[in-house]
Design brief:
The protein is of the alpha+beta class. It has 2 helices and 6 strands, in the order βαββββαβ. The chain is 19% helix and 32% strand.
Length: 80
Amino acid sequence: MRVEFDRDTCTGMFQCTAEWDAFEENREDGKADLRDAAEEDEDVFVREVPEDAEFDAKMAARVCPVDAIRVYDDDGEQIV
């Protein structure tokens, strides 16, 4: 499972940070940061989700008010 985070879309509500500790508040930029992520495209960051964090990653995506977080299964299908 992997997570994709569109930082440009992020509005800095930081709800994701309460759901998964891989997201951190960046008050200076007014946006969240996804720890240990690689920049795939301009302002789009991706990382693998550890098995023990799958529920948390899905919840972070579900609570994002602007849908800046997407979760994909191992086959590449978006599940959140």
